[in-house]
């Protein structure tokens, strides 16, 4: 895995703090941080179903459903991984203690 320059890491966390990243996570954020695959798969399947389920679906619609569902699912998965990293940082800095 390539090494990320420290300036990029510091910049990312500075933007995160500006947007309220030092606040304790909500229940939904805690769930997403613990289970990042769940929102990604759920959103991906939902988008796939919305595109494929209507009557008169053709093969190109199925392919589009797979592509768009996978793209949006991966986007949500990446966001959940970012939330997990934010929660770990909050624990490291002593801002938040995870509960049960």
Question: How would you concisely characterize the structure shown here?
Answer:
The chain is an all-alpha fold and 100 residues long.
Largest sheet, in brief, is:
none
What is the global morphology?
elongated
What is the typical, i.e. mean, pLDDT? Answer: 92
SSE topology string:
HHHH
Low-confidence segments, given as residue ranges, are: none
| Helix share bin | over 70%
Characterization of this structure:
By secondary structure, the protein is mainly α. It contains four helices and no strands. The longest helix is centred in the C-terminal third of the chain and has 34 residues, at 59-92. The mean pLDDT is 92. Helix 2 crosses helix 4 and helix 3 (37-52) packs antiparallel against helix 4. The chain has helices at residues 6-18, 27-34, 37-52, 59-92.
Structure characteristics:
single chain; mainly alpha; about 100 residues; 4 helices
Describe the secondary structure blueprint for this structure.
Elements: H1 6-18, H2 27-34, H3 37-52, H4 59-92
């Amino acid at each position: 895995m390539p090494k990320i320059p420290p300036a990029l890491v510091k910049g990312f966390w500075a933007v995160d703090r500006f947007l309220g990243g030092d606040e304790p996570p909500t229940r939904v954020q805690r769930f997403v941080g613990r289970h990042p695959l769940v929102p990604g798969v759920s959103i991906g399947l939902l988008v796939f179903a919305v595109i494929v389920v209507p009557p008169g679906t053709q093969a190109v619609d199925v392919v589009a459903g797979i592509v768009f569902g996978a793209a949006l699912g991966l986007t949500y998965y990446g966001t959940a991984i970012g939330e997990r990293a934010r929660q770990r940082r909050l624990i490291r800095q002593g801002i938040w203690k995870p509960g049960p």
